[in-house]
Amino acid sequence: MGNSDVDVVVVGAGFAGMYLLHELREHGFSSRVLEAGKDVGGTWYWNRYPGARCDIATTDYQYTWDPELHEQWTWSEKHATQPEILEYARLVAKKHDLYSGIDFEVRVVEATWNDVARVWVVRTSTGETIRCRHYVMATGCLSVPKDPDIPGTDRFIGEVYVTGRWPHEGVDFTGKRVAMIGTGSSGIQSLPLIAAEATEVVVFQRTPNFSMPAFNGPRPAHRVARLQGDRAAYEVEARTSLTGVPLPMSTVSALSVDTETAHAMLEVAWQEGELLSLGSVFSDTGINREANDVLAEFMRSKIRAVVKDPEVAELLSPRGYAVGTKRPCMDTGYYETFNLPHVRLVDLHTQPIRTITESGIEFGDESKEFDAIVYATGFDAMTGAIVAVDITGRDGQTLKQKWGDGPLTYLGLTTVGFPNFFMITGPGSPSVFTNMMVSIEQHVEWIRDTLVNLRERGVETIEPTPTAEEGWRQHNVDCASLTLLTETDSWYMGANVPGKPRVLMPYAGGVARYRAVCDEVRAKEYLGFVLEGPAGSTVNDGLIREIQPDVEMVLDMMAQMGLPPMETMTPAEARAFSEASATMRPPGPEVGSVVDGVLPGARGDLNYRLYRPASSGPHPIVVYFHGGGWVFGSHVSDDPLCRALCVGSDTIIVSVDYRHAPEDRFPAAADDGYAALQWVASHAAELGGSADRLAVAGWSAGGNVAAVVAQMARDLGGPDLRGQLLLTPVTDGSHWHPSYDDNAEGYLLTRAMMQWFWDHYADPHDRSDPRASPLLASSLGGLPPAMVITCQYDPLRDEGDAYARAMAAAGVPVQHVQARGHIHTSLTMIDVLPSNRGYVAQMAAGLRSFFA
Ligand code: N01
To answer: Which end of the chain is more exposed for a tag (fewer CB within 10 A), N or C?
Structure first.
């Protein structure tokens, strides 16, 4: 029995607990590691079913923290077997004397936070009580097999096996009639070997899974070569990848190539036999269902090619959910097994299990006797092992209570109400979406560095703030909503365990982004945490990621391009740059027809582009003004947005150009805008629309023009407008609102750039003219109904918000939409940012509402 008063208690001696023990010792922390099994290895200690292998290649599924291991250990195959991985774990434990720091066959019964002494009090199955400052659950994501939820499981008197708790001495199925329930990774890996021995196997399948052959053999040559060439670079690439395995990022949409080409590309990845390679052939199979269908159909064709009975092949073919939304599997001879005469597949949808009996299983209208039943029915994943221990935090709240509606964590590492409590690869971290070794090492190192940091500063407790935790939950939801993951009932969603809350538990934002977040939290002095010590408490409240994840990706890409700031360009350069950028974006949806024309402006002709819906007219007409700071842009520069608004609102959009600064300064844009509106009103019928259903719309400087034109129409005798749609409009050039400070350097539109626009457009004394600053009009009453959309990370946010509020105060019906996590440009990026779809739909609905 070890010391009963230590710095850290770690639960679990799998790869996470082992590495953490090593690091704690290296950094002078006393610790106890408690492990329920008899040896190290965690999941690889328990999961001994036949055929158990890791399906991440051995080039990647290994520790990187001890470089000597690469010399001292050589993996024999591409995909290591469970015994070999266990041997590796043992070697590491022996080499680093870890066994001496681990108590085996000890379970934690309860762990309770003592807020006075600021320690965790841990009671174990051996009756010992251990006090520790920090308590770490390194219990793994898939360690608690889910309870059997099939009627009659207790009745069966034959042999019963659970894949996740396989007998250490192995099982001989020779001459036996075996029932296998479950067709996830464990079932798929074990079936061929069980069938090789048994006289009869009946596989009970509820949902077929997507599986690809492992093509096991030597380690992947290209990875071995890279490791031998520059191991350090390879490891950095793994840590900054999406999944923890270096893979090229595709830029090719699965929908951009014909089926034959798509299948040829997928075939190359298929032959590689690597779990993550199929999903990285195309850029969009993880986010677009139609693109995913290309991959799904390819995988189904593979099943049909192997399984001889077409009916069985069809039953084995997953349908109705996207590839990757359930954990994909790797197999060796799984589908071939169904060609054997003694193997039968039972589809539980047509022949459900009625009950398990003393001697067999009653299903459909059949009753069959078995000698053994193998449950490959999965785990209470991610949270099961953590809440299995009775963990009580501050104020007597248990973790189980707190997580009643789903796990809540900050970074997947910590949770509010549970000071000095850490989880390794917990819910809210990338964990099971990744190469676990990479994720484990990152978590261990973050916890280690944090404990060292706290000790150096004399801090006794660390606990996240509710704001940070809620922000992290929201960010997880935002990341998940970009994917197809939440559409499927999977164990990722907790959907495999009856009664478990349906929440996507792992973080879907990827390894690189997650690592950057964790590093940033530390660099910002533990943003989102309360630190307490004898010297008092420091509350560093805040949110670590508020920008929509897809917007962030675009910002990262733009940053990598190292473009010069626009305000350092001449207007001509800015115009050329804007036009060149427009050629790279997706075109937007098809509309019924597009007509280009010319109309008279205040001082000469203006180009316009008319977008007509496919439906029959006459339609309402929206006169649209483009963005570009009054300096650049044109009647076609917001083309994708105009198309989306046309299709979504079933209205004609007439996108009108106006004269630009600095050649034509204030009030040229306003005058042209008003002239254009008058012309459209008087030519409505020939444009295919109705003059009595007119509205204006615009984005940014175009939103300014639209707002000004609406005021001019009110004041100068029409035409009557039914509405105004103002997307992140400029409404007040007279002073910088606080959102200029919040987003000064920020997010494509900066304070400096706005300064540049204003300087080109209007003299300072003109900027308080309502034709430049509609917010400053003496009255806002009598304006048409408005929809104003502002974005959280936009210097123009506050003036847009102010305009919406001021119009509402003046009695104008206003729909005010504040786009969370968005930047000035992001709602115009049609078909680039999935997170803007809802807002674009809202804008279209706003237009429809004007004409309802
Ligand atoms: O468990 P699973 P697993 N009646 O949950 C079915 C990792 N792992 O142990 O899909 C009938 O995937 C269930 O059906 P359905 C890996 O991350 C890794 O196989 O819920 N059937 C499903 O078919 C993996 O994803 C490796 O409709 C029932 C199966 O049982 C995770 O562990 C190897 C049922 C369970 O599949 C879990 O894999 C093994 C019921 N009442 C595991 N309840 C490698 O790295 C459940 N099922 C190689």
So the answer is: C
